[in-house]
Specification:
The complex is a heterodimer of chains A (507) and B (124). Chain A is an alpha/beta fold. Chain A contains eight helices and 34 strands. Classes of the chains: A alpha/beta (507), B alpha/beta (124).
């Protein structure tokens, strides 16, 4: 496009304006040469010409005046942030006898730069104009950032997430403990509805240009044996098994092998090493030998005197009654209504009603329901304990420990043992070899990542503590002599052993 | 701090001088371009339209004054600071008459150059 056709000129009173087409690609020097002969009788502000060329295409921009004294008048420029979302006003003082700009002149100039009036901060603009803050860039307009679309998600028909964080988040949203946690699915069954990612809301620059928003991420990770149905928005199971969810909102899912047994059934299937899937026991479970499960175990009754190693999560509808044999070991979360003389090690332990004279060890968290209690025995977490009540009215001795002892090394040893067992079994079990080997590597990484607990990050939060309870955090110990609560316990570096500090909370 | 940067074009045939000025201007938050002679300066100027040019007076081929004249013809609003060795005051004065906004004499310290740059940029 040549300069002659790209350029429009108009005058209004003593003022002359130019409008340069956006499609003009020629250099400023060509425009300058063209304008030299166009404004006889006018004084040309060449700085304004450059501003029009760079910033004000397709708009009429004031560049000349019949009165040369205009050169000495107060001037203004607008500058933009690289993303186009912010506009800055810079005022230049008048020279010698130059005049001030009027407010109308200033607003017209802003319009000439293309600023959208509804995005201008009129108050700041007015204050800058009245206070005459010269040579200081002042933000006078802000655009709107684009809002990226919501990621895709699946609304699952059944199953709760079985990882610790996902499960605890989901449990908080429902009124009562669900009848089923691990749900059986049949081949071809619709297990969820896919909500596609959102398109997002575009942003707008200070000049009214639309800024594209990013479409939401395809965040749903449909892994093993899940697919999209012919309608494009149903998630279907490609084989029979159980739907295993993990992550907040079940953002990660797959179908795993599922075994459903009655508690009184023959459990000899577990004699052949680690079961490479999840298991549901309808009723109570009482096993005389170690049962090892790669996935999750749901017992719709109680666990009685059973040595279990569950590498996923353990969900027990009723209680775990043990009499202290070998510890039950759980890789993720162990959740039961009650623990009676149980000995359990898990990443997270969820006590729904009570634990009585049990030894509970958690790598991250022991948590009871709001009215849950722990009395007698020992509750030990490398990090956090959250309980309804600790101890009992009859002062049952109860040890509550955070970030102390040699728990981390025991957990690490446990994960390493599992890693070795899985690796050995992967060499014999050709069908599940890849899955077992992958899990072995995962457990080795988890074991290597376990560190000594940070006593300053550890804490115990409880609604009520009874006498007979001993609180220990790191090297500091505190015995409770009177009922007290709600409060938080933390470690304080005072004295050679430190101190268990106590902070009361409002009821 | 505003999120835009002003830009400076350094025109000097001496690599060392370009580096010194580049470091000074970059450190002060300017975007920096450079050219080694008058012809290159005109090409870059037309393309980039920097806010300010520092122009060496003595250069082989098209010298500083000739470059200044051409720059002013391309863009009468261009802001130029002449950079000159001592003893060339007459040339510097001629440059001011031809439209350069300011000058610095070598050897200079960075503070003086940055002050001169800021003063010129603050002039509409």
């Amino acid at each position: 496009m040549n300069i002659a056709s790209a350029l429009s000129i108009k005058t209004s009173g003593d003022r002359a304006y130019i409008c340069i087409s956006e499609r003009y690609l020629g250099p400023l020097s060509e425009l300058t040469a063209h304008l030299q002969n166009k404004f006889s009788g006018f004084w040309i502000d060449w700085t304004a010409v450059k501003e029009a060329y760079v910033y004000a295409r397709d708009r009429f921009f004031p560049v000349a005046d019949a009165d040369q004294a205009w050169a000495d008048d107060e001037k203004a420029k607008i500058r933009f942030s690289p993303d186009g979302l912010t506009a800055y006003l810079i005022l230049y003082p008048p020279k010698t006898r130059g005049e001030r700009m009027t407010e109308a002149d200033l607003m017209n100039l802003l319009t000439a730069y293309g600023l959208q009036r509804n995005l201008i901060d009129l108050h700041t603009l007015r204050m800058t104009y009245l206070r005459r803050v010269y040579l200081e860039p002042t933000t006078i307009a802000k655009g709107r950032n684009p809002c990226d679309g919501e990621p895709a998600k699946v609304e699952w028909k059944k199953s709760l997430p079985s990882d610790a964080d996902g499960f605890l988040d989901a449990i908080m949203l429902i009124e009562s403990y669900p009848e089923e946690i691990i749900g059986k699915v049949l081949r071809g069954e619709v297990v969820g509805k896919l909500h596609p990612p959102g398109e997002g809301i575009p942003g707008i620059s200070v000049r009214g240009e639309q800024i594209k928003a990013n479409r939401g991420a395809e965040a749903v990770n449909l892994q093993e044996k899940l697919g999209i149905g012919p309608d494009g928005n149903s998630v279907i199971a490609l084989s029979e098994g159980c739907l295993k969810l993990a992550g907040i909102g079940g953002s990660f899912a797959r179908i795993e092998p599922l075994l459903i047994l009655r508690g009184s059934q023959d459990l000899s299937i577990f004699n052949h090493g680690i079961f490479p899937g999840s298991v549901i026991i309808e009723g109570d479970l009482e096993a005389n030998w170690p049962i090892r499960i790669l996935g999750d175990l749901e017992v719709r009754g109680s666990v009685v005197r059973s040595p279990l190693e569950v590498m996923g999560s353990l969900f027990v509808r009723d209680g775990i009654i043990q009499y202290r044999g070998n510890p039950i070991k759980v890789g993720q979360i162990a959740s039961a209504a009650f623990f009676d003389r149980a000995w359990i090690m898990a990443d997270t332990v969820h006590v729904r009603k009570y634990s009585l004279k049990s030894k509970i060890s958690a790598l991250k968290l022991i948590i009871t329901d709001k009215n849950g209690s722990m009395h007698g025995g020992e509750a030990s977490s490398c990090k956090t304990i959250i309980a309804g009540s600790l101890g009992s009215q009859n002062s049952m001795p109860t040890e509550v420990i955070a970030a102390a002892g040699n728990s981390p090394s025991l957990f690490a040893a446990n994960y390493r043992d599992w890693a070795e067992l899985l690796l050995n079994q992967s060499q014999d079990d050709l069908e599940n070899s890849a899955k077992l080997a992958e899990k072995s590597v995962e457990f080795k990484k988890i074991a290597n990542a376990i560190q000594s607990p940070d006593i300053f990050e550890a804490g115990i939060n409880v609604e009520k503590v009874y006498p007979g309870v001993t609180i220990r955090i790191g090297t500091a110990t505190r015995k409770i002599g009177n009922p007290v609560g709600p409060l938080d316990f933390a470690f304080e570096r005072i004295g050679p052993q430190g101190r268990v500090a106590l902070t009361r909370r409002a009821s | 701090m505003p999120e835009y940067k002003e830009s400076i074009l350094i025109v000097d045939d001496t690599e060392f001088m370009v580096k010194v000025l580049q470091d000074a201007f970059s450190g002060a938050g300017y975007d920096v371009y450079s050219a080694q002679n008058g012809e290159e300066c005109l090409k870059i100027y037309d393309k980039v339209l920097p806010d300010l040019v520092t122009l060496d007076v003595v250069m082989p081929g098209m010298d500083g004054l000739a470059t200044l004249v051409k720059l002013r013809r391309m863009d009468p609003s261009c802001k130029v600071i002449m950079v000159s060795a001592m003893g060339l005051e007459a040339k510097v004065m001629e440059a001011i008459r031809l439209g350069a906004k300011n000058y610095v004499l070598k050897p200079f310290d960075n503070e003086k150059v940055l002050t001169a740059v800021k003063k010129v940029l603050n002039d509409y």
